[in-house]
Amino acid sequence: SGGASYNKVVLRLHDGPVDPSTVSSAPPQEIIVQVLEVLRNLGIEYTKESEFKYRCVRPKKKRAGGREASTSGGTAAGPSSSNGPTTKPTIEPIYGEKPDQHDEVRFSVEITRIDRLDDLLSLDIRRLKGNLKSYKFLYDIIRE
Protein backbone atom coordinates (compact mmCIF):
# COMPACT_ATOMS: atom_id res chain seq x y z
CA SER A 1 0.00 0.00 0.00
CA GLY A 2 0.99 3.62 -0.30
CA GLY A 3 1.54 6.04 -3.14
CA ALA A 4 -1.09 5.84 -5.84
CA SER A 5 -3.17 3.20 -4.13
CA TYR A 6 -6.35 4.96 -5.26
CA ASN A 7 -5.82 3.52 -8.71
CA LYS A 8 -6.97 0.24 -7.19
CA VAL A 9 -10.29 1.86 -6.36
CA VAL A 10 -13.01 0.51 -8.57
CA LEU A 11 -13.54 3.31 -11.05
CA ARG A 12 -15.41 2.63 -14.21
CA LEU A 13 -13.72 3.39 -17.48
CA HIS A 14 -14.70 6.66 -19.12
CA ASP A 15 -16.39 6.25 -22.47
CA GLY A 16 -17.02 8.84 -25.12
CA PRO A 17 -15.13 12.04 -25.79
CA VAL A 18 -13.15 13.51 -22.91
CA ASP A 19 -14.00 17.04 -21.83
CA PRO A 20 -10.58 18.49 -20.92
CA SER A 21 -12.19 20.80 -18.36
CA THR A 22 -13.46 17.83 -16.34
CA VAL A 23 -10.16 15.95 -16.25
CA SER A 24 -8.18 15.87 -13.01
CA SER A 25 -5.18 14.13 -11.56
CA ALA A 26 -6.40 14.56 -7.99
CA PRO A 27 -7.39 11.46 -5.99
CA PRO A 28 -11.03 10.51 -6.58
CA GLN A 29 -11.84 10.96 -2.87
CA GLU A 30 -10.76 14.59 -3.13
CA ILE A 31 -12.67 15.20 -6.34
CA ILE A 32 -15.93 13.78 -5.00
CA VAL A 33 -15.68 15.84 -1.81
CA GLN A 34 -15.33 18.97 -3.94
CA VAL A 35 -18.16 17.98 -6.23
CA LEU A 36 -20.55 17.30 -3.36
CA GLU A 37 -19.68 20.65 -1.82
CA VAL A 38 -20.47 22.35 -5.12
CA LEU A 39 -23.78 20.47 -5.37
CA ARG A 40 -24.73 21.52 -1.82
CA ASN A 41 -23.85 25.13 -2.59
CA LEU A 42 -26.06 24.97 -5.69
CA GLY A 43 -29.00 23.61 -3.69
CA ILE A 44 -28.94 20.32 -5.60
CA GLU A 45 -30.17 17.13 -3.94
CA TYR A 46 -28.05 14.03 -4.39
CA THR A 47 -28.22 10.35 -3.62
CA LYS A 48 -25.19 8.12 -3.36
CA GLU A 49 -25.22 5.23 -5.82
CA SER A 50 -21.66 4.12 -5.24
CA GLU A 51 -18.56 5.62 -3.71
CA PHE A 52 -17.85 7.68 -6.79
CA LYS A 53 -21.27 7.99 -8.40
CA TYR A 54 -24.12 10.21 -7.29
CA ARG A 55 -27.55 10.83 -8.74
CA CYS A 56 -28.53 14.49 -8.56
CA VAL A 57 -31.75 16.47 -8.80
CA ARG A 58 -32.35 20.15 -9.14
CA PRO A 59 -36.04 20.51 -8.26
CA LYS A 60 -38.41 22.47 -10.44
CA LYS A 61 -38.65 26.09 -9.40
CA LYS A 62 -41.59 26.78 -7.11
CA ARG A 63 -43.86 29.64 -7.92
CA ALA A 64 -43.19 32.61 -5.70
CA GLY A 65 -45.28 32.56 -2.55
CA GLY A 66 -46.60 29.09 -3.30
CA ARG A 67 -46.80 26.74 -0.34
CA GLU A 68 -48.03 23.76 -2.34
CA ALA A 69 -44.62 22.13 -2.36
CA SER A 70 -45.23 20.01 0.74
CA THR A 71 -48.20 18.19 -0.76
CA SER A 72 -46.74 17.50 -4.18
CA GLY A 73 -43.43 16.31 -2.76
CA GLY A 74 -44.86 13.33 -0.89
CA THR A 75 -46.20 11.25 -3.75
CA ALA A 76 -43.56 11.90 -6.34
CA ALA A 77 -40.67 10.62 -4.28
CA GLY A 78 -42.08 7.22 -3.38
CA PRO A 79 -39.89 4.52 -1.89
CA SER A 80 -36.41 4.94 -3.30
CA SER A 81 -34.29 1.94 -4.14
CA SER A 82 -31.03 3.84 -3.75
CA ASN A 83 -28.23 2.98 -1.36
CA GLY A 84 -28.18 6.11 0.70
CA PRO A 85 -30.66 8.69 1.85
CA THR A 86 -31.06 11.68 -0.39
CA THR A 87 -29.09 14.64 0.87
CA LYS A 88 -31.31 17.70 0.68
CA PRO A 89 -29.43 20.96 0.97
CA THR A 90 -30.97 23.72 3.04
CA ILE A 91 -30.31 26.43 0.49
CA GLU A 92 -32.47 27.38 -2.46
CA PRO A 93 -31.58 25.59 -5.68
CA ILE A 94 -29.79 27.70 -8.26
CA TYR A 95 -31.68 28.84 -11.35
CA GLY A 96 -30.22 30.75 -14.26
CA GLU A 97 -31.52 33.37 -16.61
CA LYS A 98 -33.14 32.10 -19.77
CA PRO A 99 -32.48 29.73 -21.56
CA ASP A 100 -32.57 27.87 -18.21
CA GLN A 101 -36.17 26.62 -18.07
CA HIS A 102 -36.27 26.35 -14.24
CA ASP A 103 -37.55 22.80 -14.70
CA GLU A 104 -36.55 19.71 -12.78
CA VAL A 105 -33.16 18.49 -13.94
CA ARG A 106 -31.86 15.05 -13.05
CA PHE A 107 -28.29 14.09 -13.77
CA SER A 108 -25.56 11.85 -12.50
CA VAL A 109 -21.99 12.68 -11.59
CA GLU A 110 -19.43 9.94 -11.64
CA ILE A 111 -15.67 9.82 -11.44
CA THR A 112 -14.24 7.53 -14.10
CA ARG A 113 -10.72 6.69 -15.13
CA ILE A 114 -9.40 7.47 -18.56
CA ASP A 115 -8.11 4.50 -20.49
CA ARG A 116 -4.31 4.31 -20.83
CA LEU A 117 -3.84 7.37 -18.61
CA ASP A 118 -3.53 5.91 -15.16
CA ASP A 119 -3.28 9.09 -13.18
CA LEU A 120 -5.99 11.04 -14.99
CA LEU A 121 -9.63 10.90 -13.98
CA SER A 122 -12.69 12.34 -15.61
CA LEU A 123 -15.73 13.80 -13.89
CA ASP A 124 -18.61 12.47 -15.97
CA ILE A 125 -21.78 14.52 -15.72
CA ARG A 126 -24.71 12.96 -17.54
CA ARG A 127 -28.18 14.34 -18.09
CA LEU A 128 -30.94 11.93 -17.11
CA LYS A 129 -34.01 14.16 -17.31
CA GLY A 130 -34.85 17.77 -17.89
CA ASN A 131 -34.38 20.50 -20.44
CA LEU A 132 -31.04 20.39 -22.24
CA LYS A 133 -30.43 24.13 -21.81
CA SER A 134 -31.21 23.93 -18.10
CA TYR A 135 -28.83 21.01 -17.78
CA LYS A 136 -26.13 22.86 -19.71
CA PHE A 137 -26.44 25.77 -17.29
CA LEU A 138 -25.82 23.44 -14.33
CA TYR A 139 -23.11 21.50 -16.13
CA ASP A 140 -21.10 24.65 -16.81
CA ILE A 141 -21.33 25.78 -13.19
CA ILE A 142 -20.35 22.39 -11.75
CA ARG A 143 -17.50 22.15 -14.22
CA GLU A 144 -16.13 25.54 -13.20
UniProtKB/TrEMBL annotation:
<protein>
    <recommendedName>
        <fullName>non-specific serine/threonine protein kinase</fullName>
        <ecNumber>2.7.11.1</ecNumber>
    </recommendedName>
</protein>
<keyword id="KW-0808">Transferase</keyword>
<dbReference type="InterPro" id="IPR001772">
    <property type="entry name" value="KA1_dom"/>
</dbReference>
<feature type="region of interest" description="Disordered">
    <location>
        <begin position="59"/>
        <end position="102"/>
    </location>
</feature>
<feature type="domain" description="KA1">
    <location>
        <begin position="98"/>
        <end position="144"/>
    </location>
</feature>
<dbReference type="InterPro" id="IPR028375">
    <property type="entry name" value="KA1/Ssp2_C"/>
</dbReference>
<feature type="compositionally biased region" description="Low complexity">
    <location>
        <begin position="67"/>
        <end position="85"/>
    </location>
</feature>
<keyword id="KW-0723">Serine/threonine-protein kinase</keyword>
<dbReference type="GO" id="GO:0004674">
    <property type="term" value="F:protein serine/threonine kinase activity"/>
</dbReference>
<dbReference type="Pfam" id="PF02149">
    <property type="entry name" value="KA1"/>
</dbReference>
<keyword id="KW-0418">Kinase</keyword>
<dbReference type="GO" id="GO:0005524">
    <property type="term" value="F:ATP binding"/>
</dbReference>
<keyword id="KW-0547">Nucleotide-binding</keyword>
<keyword id="KW-0067">ATP-binding</keyword>
